[in-house]
Amino acid sequence: MNISHTKVIMLMSFLLCLSACSRDFDPPPALGALVGKVKYNSTPAQYLTAATIRLVECGLSAVSNAAGYFQIDDVPQGDYTLLITATIMPEGKKTLIVYEAENPVAVRQGVRDLGDISVLPSGWIEGRVELSDGGSPLNAVIYLLEGVSLTHASVGGGFLMSGVPAGDRLVGAALPGYMLAAPERVKIEPGKTTESIVLRLQPVPEDAKGNVSGSVLLGNPSDRAGVLVSLTDRFESRQYTAKTDEKGSYAFLELPAGYYQMTASHTGYRTVGLPSLEIRKQADLTLRTLTLPTMEGSSILRPIDSDPNGNLDDDLDGIADLQDNCPIIPNPMQLDTDRDGIGNACDPDGDPLDKDRDGVLDSEDNCPSVFNNGQKNHDDDPLGDACDPDDDNDGILDGSDNCPLVANPDQNSDICNWPKPLIYSAQDPGGDIHLYAYQPNHATLDPPRQLTKGMQG
After folding, report:
1. What's the start-to-end Cα distance of the chain, in Å?
2. Beta-ladder partners of 88
3. Predicted pLDDT of residue 425
4. How far is CA 188 from CA 166, 222, 311, in A?
5. d(Cα 375, Cα 354) in Å, to the nearest integer?
6. Does 454 have pLDDT greater than 80?
7. Distance CA 35, CA 189 (A)
8. Residues 356, 384: contact at Cβ < 8 Å?
9. pTM of the full predicted structure?
10. What is the distance between the alpha carbons of residues 360 and 11, in angstroms, rounded to a whole number?
């Protein structure tokens, strides 16, 4: 009896163990699918071809066909932000459309048909960036917090951001060595430009640190420990990593304040992330939950893109983000004077021999304090156009000159509107005389073209 009793106990223990262990092998919730048709809300309405439809929190996307139809398969169950981008040609003008659904899209088992999605025109944000210490805001990055839109400030700090989804948006700005005093909340109306806003940046204090937390689901969905979460400083490329616990949660404590991008990755699953995160001094940032789909092949109608904002070259300088030593500020020359792996354009320390970080040493720069890597100089004087108040050297300042690129001290407008190219000579400060060809009514597109190397006057 004792032996039999022992066998029964062992058998029951085995069954209990098997039952408990089987939880690891339970099939995950069934995947879902999302279908719909995208049309531009115009009169008459037009279905959008080649629009990209993206589920932000799981990174899956599709491209609409000629009838505006799209289908996203194998979507883990969850609630996702639906983001649509497209380019249209109303009245022959190329226009970028970015649309974000007002409410999250719920995907469950089976097919969810969204029907016709009426895409509203995106809007524009106008404003300027100011530095508290009076420094130059040139190339400061202006972005939507957790959004995909970004642009850069001009020499005077002005900017115009296009492709902004309608609705309430938080706008931030960043520059190497500076942090945002406070984000600006703006209301974007379809097809309209906001009233001008001001984004103020201040030097980053050495002790400015904040906390970040969130969760990542693996699969369809399920909590799982060991998912790698990375936060990357978008200027200095410093990366901080953590792994999720058994509940899928992660946390970063005491991270330096700055402008970051987040990604989550795990073997056998697609990398998913969130762009444009701002870590502020003594602030707690809670990120939305991400779900990693299983890895699978790519196709024209179903692109795979592990970049959090769907753009592999954020600054559009021709260098892919993964190879770019300054992925968020245009720097096609990839200059890195101190060889620390951070391009001059992103390095808070800059280059003592190139104060404006334009890749031209101060000793050779015709505007050493103003970014002008092209070194354009229409009048061949010592000052480049970027810092020359009188580009044609006719005594009339550019702001008051009716033809700022061709000398006309009497302000005769006929010269500016002359229908044919002009051939003229000019003498540079070194005494060389050059012959130029110039089309006045294309002044902003076609600067004077030098025809000769010059001869001594």
Report:
1. 122
2. 95
3. 66
4. 5, 36, 23
5. 14
6. no
7. 27
8. no
9. 0.70
10. 80
